[in-house]
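--- STAGE predict ---
source: upstream dedup step, 1 unique chain passed
mode: sequence only
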Amino acid sequence: MAFAEFAADMVLTLSGRDPSPFTSAIIVSAGNSTRMGATVSKQFLAVKGVPVLARTLLSFQKARYIDEIIVVARAEDIESVWQLADRYGISKLQAVTRGGSTRALSVRRGFRKINPKSRYVAIHDGARCLTTPQQIGKVCRAAYRHRAATAACGVTDTVKMANKRGFIASTVDRDKVFLVQTPQVFHADLYRAALAHVDDDFITDDNQLMERIKYPVKLVNFGKDNIKITTPDDIARAEFILSQREVTK
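--- STAGE serialize ---
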């Protein structure tokens, strides 16, 4: 265990919190991949020879704080997910369930499959395949401390607000602007309560559930390399990032 992890665990222990509560990961992989333009789901396209979803699952398999994995996939991909898990030794995979018509519905279906003893849930995009086990641990520890935490990336460009006619209205303090990523980790009871109070199947990320019930979410800056595979250009970008990681090892 790295010193940073040990120190974080000690802080949690001294504050009376469990440093390693049972945590379920819900990997959302039920999108239709229309922007990729491929004949197969983007989850099964290769990045440096390894399928996108396999890379994602391997990171969560290796993540110390993740106890089980639930995958939400298209109905026609469910068997392929199990085959992928078998091929790459994803022993934490406990269930693969069919996705819904929206991302929110897909997450709800995955949440129904988590272990009853799960105390935290980590929700992640299957196509965000460069997330490392260390990063997963970092956002999990933040959630264990604050009950809700999310991966994010600070912006470096100047940010402007536009008026209704498309002209600049004002300049936003970019130090307060973040692009939200995944994983997003929440206390299971908190997430369950948010689902009960928010009847909206079209929210685009799960932090919005917390916003609706006025619960603060801790931002964990992952930087710009935690990209999501959405278009063909993202494959080349992901392979470049992985090549750079190999050079700096």
